[in-house]
Specification:
21% of the residues lie in helices and 24% in strands. It is of the alpha+beta class. It has two domains: 147 residues, Rossmann fold; 116 residues, Beta Barrel (Elongation Factor Tu (Ef-tu), domain 3), CATH 2.40.30. The chain has a seven-stranded mixed β-barrel. Strands 1-3-2-4-5 form a five-stranded mixed β-sheet, covered by helices on one side.
Amino acid sequence: MQDEFVGIVHAVLTATSPGLTVIDLTHHIPPFDVRAGSHALTRSVPYLGHGIVLAVVDPGVGSDRRGVCLQAESSGSGGPQFFVGPDNGLLIAAAELVGGGSIARGVELERSAGDGAATTFDGRDVFAPAAAALCGGVPLEELGSLIDPATLVRLPAPTIERGRLADGRHTLRTEITWVDHFGNLQLAARPADVAAPAYTEAREILTLGSLTVELSPADGSGSQRTLRCVETFADLAPAELGLLQDSNGHLAVVANQASAAQMLTLAAGELVVLTW
């Protein structure tokens, strides 16, 4: 982090709840990229213990967008119970993942009118105080007005479209949802998205390393590239491109000890087509 914002949020949390343990997941979400923040939370929550998630990617700070706290009733996994942040789509996918597909309750947080309150730093003035209050045992309903979870803002679902070419080959048009710092391209699609009963050949692609798929940008720009389907990075030769199931259960375009993103000049948010 390059400024004092995160440190101030930590200070507000620990001043209200001394001894509080705070785990920073990341402070490197691209500025204003709510979708990237949502994906990061969703990847993380299966491994977080029982507690409270405070997340801020908030280009609408100071506007009429709501600040919310969501309660997710975990089905025995012991995952995070409360999610605090802006109602802009950032929290809901992760909260529903913990809650088995639903949000138990939610409130719209009240904005502080005290000295020092601002319209540009809700992380300090709204979200951190709410998270600290929850840590101190304050009931959810005392933090604001109950809201209908159905009214929460949702982000558009990532693209996952199956098809078939005239020559009989299968296609999967899908979105690149994340490029990690190694240059691996995580796709929205998972193995189950191509292993449907009508896609027997796709199931074989994901289990037999000798098979290959062709990858091309969905907009027609760039050339088609061959990807060998493998289980690990080491199954590929150095700088060889491949397709595997990553640690989050998604399909990923990778290269052994090289950046697939640089080799293919692709970025998060772009669409690609797999053909086999």
